[in-house]
Structure formats: C-alpha cells, structure tokens
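Subject: mismatched residue count in predicted assembly?

I count 518 residues in my input, but I want to confirm that the predicted structure covers every chain. Input:
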Amino acid sequence: MTADKATAHHTADSSQEKDISKPTGVKALLIEVAGMTHFSGRFFKEAFLPPYELNEFLKQSYLIGNKSLPLVGITAFIMGLVFTMQSQPTLAKFGATSWLPAMVSVAMIREISPVITALICAGKVGSGIGAELASMRVTEQIDAMEVAGNRPFKYIVVSKIAATIFMVPLLVIFADGIALIGSYLGVNLSGHTAFNVFFGHVFNKLDFIDVFPAFVKTFFFGFAIGMISCYKGYNSNEGTEGVGRAANSAVVIASLAIFIIDMIAVQVANLFN
Amino acid sequence: MKKETGNKIRLGLFVIGGALIFLVGIYFIGQKRLLFSSTIKVKTIYHDVNGLQAGNNVRFSGIDVGTVDDITIISDTAVRVTLAIDRSVQKFIKKDAKASIGSEGLMGDKIVNISAGTDGGPEIENGDMVMAMEGSTIDEIMKSVKITADNAAHITADLADVVGTIKTGRGTIGKLLMDTVFADNLDATMVNVKQASGGLKENMEAAKHNFLLRGYFKKKEREAEKKEKEQEKEEKKAEKDSSTK
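Triage response: the counts match. Full output below for your records.
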C-alpha cells in the first residue's frame, strides 16, 4: 500500500498549486481505496445487467489475450529453463536430481508462472488500459459518450475488466505448459531424460491442491489488473500529464496488488491443506 | 469487419488451446490419483502408520497400482488405512496378501507395499481386510543397533581387561608371555629335559642288550618283519589286479 500512498502523495504534491483542497497522505489513500471499492461495486452491478457489450468484450479479449501470448510465452519458457538449470546443481549435491521435475513443476505451477504472468500483464495490459482511458478522459471522449447516452462505463470499463478476468488465467495456463517444456529442455541440457519420464514425474507429484488454488487466484490477479488500471485511467483528471501518470500508477498499484493477493491466496490455500 | 472476424477466430483458438492444456493437465493428474478408472477399496489396520498420508502410492510388485484413500484412528492402538486399488490388478492380489508400509528411498514419501499372497488362492474383493505387516521402522533398527553396540562395548571392555592382565604378567598366559624369570626357568628346564632324554636313550640301549629283556625286543623285530612282508604281498596282488583289468 506504500506505493499507493506514494503515488497519491505525488499526485497531490504536483497539483497543489492548482487545487489546494486536494487531500494528501493517509486521507488520499483512504479516498483512493474507497474510490476503488465503489468502482468495483459499479463494475459488478453493470457487468450482470443487460445489455452486454459482447463484441467489445471479444475485441478486448483478443487484444489482452492473444497479443500478450508471445511475451508471456517467451518469459515462461525462459523461467522454466533457467529455474531448472539453477536448481539442478543444488539438487545434484544431495543426489536428488530425480526430484527436479517434481520440484520445478510444483514451484512453477503454484507460484512462479501465475505471478510472473500477472506482472507481465500488469506491465503490458495495465499501462495500455490506464493510458487509453486517461487520454479518452482528457480528450473528453468519455464525457461525449455519456452525453450521447452510450454508457461509457459499460462499453469501456466493464468489457476491459471482464476481458482481463478471463484472459489472465488462460495466459497463466499457457505459461504453465510452456514453462514445463522449458524445464524439460533444461533437464535435457545436463543429460538425456525421456519426455514421458519427465512428465510422469511431473504429474506424479502434482496434486489438485497445487493446481486449483493457483488457478483460482489468477482470476483475482486478472480482476486486480483490469480494475486498477481502468480506475486510474477513468478517474484521471489532470490533462495530458495525467495520461502518463495514470499509466504509471496503474502498473505500480496493480503489481503491488498482485503480491498482496498472492499472499492472501497462500494463506487461504493452506487452510485447505 | 473481415479483420474483426479473423481476430475472433484467433481468440477462439487461443481460448480452446488454453482449455485443452488445462483439461489435459487435470486428466493426467487425475489419472495418477485413479480418478478416472474403476477402483476397489481394501482396508488394513496398523498400530503405527509411520507418517503415511492420504494420497501416498500403493505398490504391488513394485508397480504403482493405487493410492491411500483414507486414514482414520479407530482406537488408541489401531489406525485403519483404506487403500484404493485399480480394479485391473484385483485378480493378481489374493485374500492372504499382506500390506506393509515402506518408504521411497531413505527420505522419500511413505508407500504401502502389497505382497501377492498364495498362488491359486481366492482373489481379493472390494471392502476386504488385508493383513498388515508392520515393517521395521528406523527407530526399531536403531534400537537393535544400540543393543549390538552395547554388547560390543561389553566385549571390548572384557578384552581390554584380559589384555591388561596378560600385560602385567599375571595368570598362566601372562607369565608365559611377559615373565622373563619364568622364561629363563623354562629355558633351563628345556636344557635339563634334553640332557635327561639323552640319558634315557643310553639306558634304553643298555636295556636292549640286557639278557632279561633281549627276548622281548627280538620278538618285536620279527613281528615287524612279518608285517612288512605281508604288505609287500598285498601290493603285488593289487598291481596284478590293475594290470589284468
């Protein structure tokens, strides 16, 4: 939450000359949290009420999902490969290299690929949404839509958040698969291991308790990325410099939110263990 | 419009691809847990399960054939372990099979090993009880090692005592090995014995020539000659037999 505070503080500092009534410090943080809560409530209300902007949702899904896949795929592949190569010498010291596939797969699927994928999405998708919405606000497109009765919140915000909610988990699944392939190649760099031996070890050690909490938390990651970046963009009111600031704070706060959600998720998952 | 349709198709492929990877993963994890194959439940009762957990593997002849389904405490000395075993191996496991708890390697997970049972016996059925075989735990092994080590300590202490006694020259062996006076005496005794045996030889020669004993010695000589002749005859006979054959 410190980043949140810092950004809020920074925002308040630079605009002090223009607007003396703008709150700072803890007050600004609380206003920010209240604003996000209200924003989330409005999202859920509008998401379930017709009419649905299905076309816009599909378009956003394509932009968020398909367009991020190459970046996520390359990162996941390298993470799988490097993680395997880094762990191999340590495990070899204990003569436990046969545990390598199991260890890498549990680490990748439980933690590394959800968090890394979410962080990449926060960077790539979050900054894009933040900047896009902020510039729409600055150029008064949002106001124009409101005047025309086009429901800008539903058209712009709901479709984007819904798209991140569904696309981030899918990207994580791809990342899991690609990371395991990377890990398989990493194992094969230091000696030959058959494909089915490797994946036999992986699936022997993986349990539903590893997969499901990791899968469920990615929906929350997606929601956090979409909601925070939309909130930051939608509520940007400081002219052109606000566009950059909205994109920047969208990434920072979304990344922080990912780690906070991850921490809560591990506690909740351990309750079921 | 055309581009939008193309994008939708790509999005569809992306979603289907993700769903497929997810389903394949779930299927393979479930397959290892025998979620998608028919199983039979077999129960066994242990005093101590040594850290066995639900989800651990069950092995038959070294092959994974099932998992530990459930572990419940039924009394202060008994724990009931329910095993889910693949139905396809049911015909190989007999009613008198025994289940023991082992471990995968020294540090690895616990597993349940099932032995086949008597050949030709009736095969196991769903809900049957299997005899538990409580294997030796590390603790028990350590206990028996401790007893062995204690015994070894006793033995070595006794041995040290004996060696100490010998070293100080007490006792027969100690005197023999360590006492120089005793060694000198022994040496002197040996010289005396040598001299005495020389004297005895002379005495014997004299006795042989004595007329009272001469008859006895001559008789002895004749008997010896007779025996020699008989031996020669037998040898010749044996040679003849072997040549005719």
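Chain B has three domains: 36-135, 136-173, 179-237. Marking this ticket as 'not a bug'.
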